[in-house]
Design brief:
With 297 residues, the chain is of the alpha+beta class. Helices cover 15% and strands 31% of the residues. Mean pLDDT is 80; it is low at 2-15 and 17-63.
Amino acid sequence: MNTGQQEHAFGSAAGRLLPVFLCITLIVQSAKSQEQYSEADSKPSSGSLFLYMPLPASGAGSASGAIAVPSGTILPVHLNSTISSAKCKPGRVITGRIMQDVPLASGARVREGSKVVGHIVEVTPASAGGQVRISLLFDKLISSHQTISITTNLRAIAGFMEVRDAQTPFGAGEGDVYRWLTTVQVGGDVAYGDGGPVTTGEDAHDVVGKVINGGVLGRVRAKEGTRCRGAIDGNDTPQALWVFSSDACGTYGLEHMGITHAGRTAPVGVITLAPNRRDFKIRSGAGMLLRVDGNGN
């Protein structure tokens, strides 16, 4: 075979082998890529190529990503503003801080540190034979960079001393870890340290909730002899109760203050407090349980 024939034969063979060579190269590169992906991301590699697409996070609330806070959800609030006879003017803004993560049925959460915003609607001065009345409205929740419109009513309110006492363990001594010790919630439930049960009084078998980091989770109970309800609108999931008992209702440590309208009926969302003296004050640091009530009932 002359030189020209040899070159022609070699070229023909190379032409036939080139597709095979390219195919082998692609397979080897694909295998290496999958092996590197598996090592870097702790994902099992397979013998076939695949396209990885991250799944959307759970608890998004809606297609737009907005948090939906269903009716019946309890919001445990630390009052940031002082409400007093000296500062009660219609339109004045009042704010509060959410004191523990609030679980929602969708799997999302209203995070601790979120903000509740309201304002004073009306101040009615004392008249002949009448009381001073202050009407409030909390209608905005600011959470995860979102401002959410809400309708709320007042389930319970406690003065700052009662809030402090509920956070102070029994017989705490030097070296004790506070979060492991027993405390008494506003309203009388007993909380047995971080991760422990919450019971109604000293009966350790009557469990109504659980202590978690930053507060208490429990199902809301109706309070006998009052208008305070248990779960509403089918929302019987454990609620964030912070320092309050599962049946806490009304006022605590605010002997001079009554609730004449909780906001459940018209005008829905408007909370009316009636102090029994002209000079009154609810100090910042007071605690509240607000309930989101989409149906106004």
